[in-house]
Structure formats: structure tokens, C-alpha cells
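Section 5.1 Outputs to date
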Amino acid sequence: MARLYGAGLWCVFTVVLALSSGVPFVPDTYGEAYIAGQFGLSLPSAGKGLTDVEFTSVSPPGSFSDRALKSSILFGAKLGFYMPTVRWFGLETEIFNTTPHIKQQKATITIPPGATADIPGTTVTGGTATGVLAGDHFRVLTWAPVNFMFRYPKARLQPYFGIGPGVFFASVHSTDPSSPGSQSSTRLGLNTKAGVEYFITKRLGAFGEWKYNYTRFYFRENDNQFGFNGTYSMHHVVFGISYHF
């Protein structure tokens, strides 16, 4: 009887061990949702700030030197879902805010022949003028409605990559007391990222990523501000905590 009982326990142990060893390979039929908070730095020094700037207060537009930007804190949140049967692919939406203010700086403006433009401190008539412009408060709120996410899901340390469209809401507020006012521009552009996430527990993760944004803003002339267009090409370094359901 003792031998039979011992053999039975051994059989049960063997079956349990076999089943438990197979558990990690059972597909998750419910998928994997997650929510995350993110913070970091916007680094215009990795690019050139607002580039390919056009001065649009005259027709045809004149040229404008690049507008240098300051580094800024970034903060935001994201929500995503990885597919149940294709665990390396997912969809994500995110939103984040940054304020890379326009620096006070020397600027050069070129006006086409026959055109006249009044800018703070000088009047330009069909030629080129160089002067110092006061800095402006610059804010960009980015909403990425859908990022297409790709990851390596088979380890605690998971590299990933994401790409999708971005909607960029920008505003410029003058700091010059002689020309107060604000301008805004909402444009569609590119949002892309690459990073790595480490699962501290089965559900709690920490991540670090690089983001890159690209769009072109159009700021219209108003009573106090000159109009200009500029290409926004921004790099961000971001960290965060995620919770997976």
C-alpha cells in the first residue's frame, strides 16, 4: 500500500509539474491593456528649433532666420492595448505637453523687392534687416490619436517601437510689452518613438523612450504680431511608470 501511495504521489507531482511548465505558453485570450504616466525633457538643441521660417506679413512671403527654442519639461499620459493572439503588436493613444519657449535672439528678415513690412524696432522695405527680437512663450500640446506599437513580449525587459500621426496644438504669447497678444496653430504631423520597458512585477512596468515630432506651424499675422510659418522638429527624452491589466 505504501508503495502504491508513493507511486500515486509521484504521478500527481509529475502531472502538476508538466502542467505548470506549460502555463507561460498559454496565450492570453483577453489581450493586454495598459495605462501610463510620462515625464521628461524636450531637447530643441538636438535639432534647430523652428526652421525653414517664412515671414508671411508680406506677399510674397519673405525669409526669416531659424528661431531658437529653449529646453522644456514634458509631461503627459498614454493608454494602450496589445492584441491577444499577436502579443507583439498593439495600439496606443497618448497626450503630452511641452513649453519650449522661443529665445530672445538676433533675427534676420529678408523682404522681397517692392514690399514693406513693419516689425518691432524697424521697418523693412524690399531688403534685409537684422535685429534682436524679444523671446515669446511657446506651448505645444501633442495628441497622438493612434500609435502603431511593436514590441518584443517574451522577457521582462521589452524593447519597443511606435509610429503614428500626431495632432499638434501650438500657441505663441508675446513677452514684448509694446506688442502684447497671442497666435495659435493646429497642425497634423508625425509622432514616433523607440524605447524599452522593464516589468518590475507582472503588472507594473518602468520605461524610458525617445520621441520625435515633426510638423509645420502656420501663425497668422494679427494687430501686434507678424505672421510666420515654421517647421517644428523636436526630440524628447521620456521616462514613466505603466500599469498593465
